[in-house]
């Protein structure tokens, strides 16, 4: 009989996320080992417990999920997990990062945009692009080939993000701009896509600017707490046409995000050497539409 | 296929109760997510993880159980859980409180008494009525319609409990008395039922007073640590007739308590909007006898 | 239907061991309740939650596993667990100690030695015999009837271990020696078996001494971190013949250790009153070979 599937769930918050746990069991995980308050120096024995307990052919039935509200902390834990895997000896398990849902949310937003316009030639604007979701969405849009404006209220912070993306995606065509404080008129110029990924409860783009922008085809607001980040877009909008623009709200993107999240957890158990970070999760997201 | 059942177990003690966990899995819970040291300010994301992960038709397969040795702390956590449910949007799960087993124990004791006498016309005495089990037993007896003496060694504490019950049960016919220190002769006058719910190891009612009380039909001692709270009643008494009175000890009530506990956990998964606190647990207890 | 199997996993480290958890579910455990940072004063309610929740005939479907990196702390927790079981009333569950894998590792090493030589008449040397694995291996070898040299770099520490074994195994034929610092020539004299159980990364026995010892038949190095504890023995050696001596490295013993570990966890659920400490685990190890 097959060994049961085990998901090692490493969460950087004191109480491991119930959200991620429910999604894990709904994805078919049989035994979920959740740890809260995980710091990098605690990771080694936890990972060794995964790779030294099952034979190589059964290692694909063990996997690691890194979560928690702090995306930077999650990235550090992911790096530490990878450090203690030994794929050169076949001693490895697949691992996924989705701290704060940042990877699945960014992937869902970009997949939604790609339903309405060819991303390889689209002009995009990402508002709140210095946060974890915004950075990831901008990186995916740039990798798809279009021109991407990276916006932050402080231009130097946007510049830093743009520089980072140029390193990760050499062909990236990105430009840093100062925007997101409620005036997005210039930043929207010739844009086909706008994604608002700012802090909850901040209105970043007034309706009049959105409506005045003739080229705009897709507006995605990832803010789940009123007021909307993009004025006039509603929480439940899901390809809702407003003023000749396809609009998505946080809950409208949420259904796709959930599908991606579950598909990624399931995919962890199909091999023992996968790392699901933003690119891999986006590739999967494109497959499932 | 049905989604697996998930019980979110929030315990106010550092280590979540093994007792409650075994009962949960013996009630058929498939995935038990137990959290220890839960404080009110940690509750919101835990509850959101329940209501935002499953579609409305599947929400009845997620539920919340609040436990721990501190009943007041559990009540605060229950209130916080309810604050973050959103039944108006159909985003709700059922929730049960049984900190320190207080609800299931009080319900079991009153159900046991009701097997031998009509509670709507019975005269009762609750010794140690200021503790969580005593308060709940007194409230159920008062709601059933009989006359209830609320006893504490300090009469003013008994008065406070009586006042609280009169608020919750407007028709309550309750009277505060000073008793429980080993002399219960006056308090027992014309009583048909006595329930001792005091601190472990304190003898509250001497055998001679119990035997001298001609009207007494039921004596229930919830104290599990010798000496007995009601002298002469044994731990394993379960409808044991002593001196023409039906006697129950802590273990004798325990079997009924366990049945009620399991039935309540199972009932959580039959709907998504139930709150199982003392009244609802007692209603269920009456159904299963 | 049978009640599900429940393993209460008490770990003295802050994060309960993933290794022990994977082995538990691979042994068929259905519900694994893992607790980290367990201190003796927290044990009573955890054990009571095991013995007061199921009827006597179902108690064999609940068991306790004590683990963690600190063997002495585990022994204290095991003693506390046993204190709160009530086998005289039939209120008991089986319990196993395997902190740091010490019991299963020592049993696996001695079983491996016994495949090649009659332990009742063998002369053994245990290097690093004051650590938890070394002490246990020495005790098992002494109980089997052979002559055992207990080695530590500090002879007085070896004497203390020898004295302890003489108390536990009255017929023990043991001798304390100073060895393990890299010169084992005298200590090896007339030995048939050597087991190195010292701290990781310390070379305790040079190859030239091992090769020069004509009587040596079995060399087992339990050190998993290079350099080898016994020079020339490799991590993966498993009955590998080197210089007319059967050699085992840490990974070579690991397969047997894992089989013993799983068999012991399964055996916990065949009765409700077993205590699996080193002797019982070794008895089981001999059965499964």
Explain what you see.
3 copies of one chain form a homotrimer. Chain A has 289 residues and is an alpha/beta fold. Chain A folds into 2 domains: 6-101 and 256-288, Rossmann fold (3-Layer(aba) Sandwich); 106-253, Rossmann fold. The first copy, chain A, has helices spanning 18-26, 43-51, 71-84, 102-114, 132-144, 155-168, 185-188, 207-212, 250-268, 278-288, and strands at 6-11, 31-35, 62-67, 94-97, 123-127, 147-152, 173-178, 193-196, 218-221, 238-242, 245-248, 275-276. In chain A, strand 5, helix 5 (132-144) and strand 6 (147-152) form a beta-alpha-beta unit. The longest helix of chain A is centred in the last third of the chain and has 19 residues, at 250-268. Chain A starts with 5 loop residues before the first strand and ends with a helix. The mean pLDDT of chain A is 96. Chains in contact: A-B, A-C, B-C. Chains A and B meet through helix 1 of A and strand 2 and helix 2 of B.
Topology:
The structure is a homotrimer of 289-residue chains.
Chain A: E1 6-11, H1 18-26, E2 31-35, H2 43-51, E3 62-67, H3 71-84, E4 94-97, H4 102-114, E5 123-127, H5 132-144, E6 147-152, H6 155-168, E7 173-178, H7 185-188, E8 193-196, H8 207-212, E9 218-221, E10 238-242, E11 245-248, H9 250-268, E12 275-276, H10 278-288
Parallel strand pairs in A: 1-2, 1-3, 3-4, 4-12, 5-6, 5-8, 6-7, 8-9, 9-11
Antiparallel strand pairs in A: 10-11
Helix pairs in contact in A: 2-3, 4-5, 4-9, 4-10, 9-10
Features:
homotrimer, 289 residues, alpha/beta, Rossmann fold, seven-stranded mixed β-sheet, 10 helices
CATH topology of the largest domain in chain A: Rossmann fold
Order of helices and strands of chain A: EHEHEHEHEHEHEHEHEEEHEH
Largest interface: A-B, 15 and 20 residues
Overall number of structural domains of chain A: 2
Number of distinct beta strands of chain A:
12
* Rg calc of chain A: 19 Å
Instruction: Please give the alpha-carbon distance between the first and last residues of chain A.
Output: 34 Å
Give the strand content of chain A.
15-25%
CATH architecture of the largest domain in chain A: 3-Layer(aba) Sandwich
With strands numbered from the N-terminus, the spatial order across the biggest sheet of chain A is 7-6-5-8-9-11-10
Average pLDDT of chain A, rounded to a whole number, is 96
Low-pLDDT ranges of chain A: none
Q: Specify the CATH class of the largest domain in chain A.
A: Alpha Beta
Biggest β-sheet strands, sense, barrel of chain A: 7 strands, mixed
Name the CATH homologous superfamily of the largest domain in chain A: NAD(P)-binding Rossmann-like Domain
Oligomeric state of this protein:
homotrimer
């Amino acid at each position: 009989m097959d060994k049961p599937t085990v998901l090692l769930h490493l969460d950087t918050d004191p109480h491991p996320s119930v959200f991620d746990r429910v999604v894990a069991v709904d994805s078919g995980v049989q035994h979920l080992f959740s740890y809260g308050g995980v710091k990098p120096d605690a990771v080694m024995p936890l990972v060794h417990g995964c790779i030294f307990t099952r034979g190589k052919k059964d290692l694909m039935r063990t996997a690691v999920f890194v979560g928690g509200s702090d995306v930077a902390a999650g990235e550090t834990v992911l790096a530490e997990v990878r450090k203690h895997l030994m794929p050169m000896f076949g001693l490895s398990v697949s691992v996924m990062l989705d701290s704060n849902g940042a990877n699945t949310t960014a992937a869902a937003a970009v997949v939604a945009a790609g339903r309405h316009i060819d991303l390889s030639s689209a002009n995009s604007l990402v508002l709140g692009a210095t946060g974890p979701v915004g950075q990831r969405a901008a990186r995916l849009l740039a990798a798809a080939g279009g021109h991407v404006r990276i916006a932050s209220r402080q231009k130097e912070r946007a510049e830093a993000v743009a520089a980072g993306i140029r390193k990760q995606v050499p062909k990236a065509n990105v430009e840093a701009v100062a925007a997101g404080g409620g005036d997005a008129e210039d930043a929207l110029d010739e844009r086909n896509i706008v994604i608002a990924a700012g802090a909850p409860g901040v209105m970043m783009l007034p309706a009049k600017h959105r409506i005045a922008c003739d080229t705009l085809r897709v507006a995605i607001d990832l803010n789940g707490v009123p007021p909307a980040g993009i004025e006039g877009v509603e929480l439940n909008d899901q390809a809702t046409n407003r003023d000749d623009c396809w609009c998505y709200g946080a809950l409208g993107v949420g259904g796709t995000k959930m599908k991606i999240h579950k598909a990624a957890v399931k995919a962890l158990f199909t091999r023992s050497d996968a790392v699901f970070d933003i690119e891999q999760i986006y590739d999967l997201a494109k497959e499932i539409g």
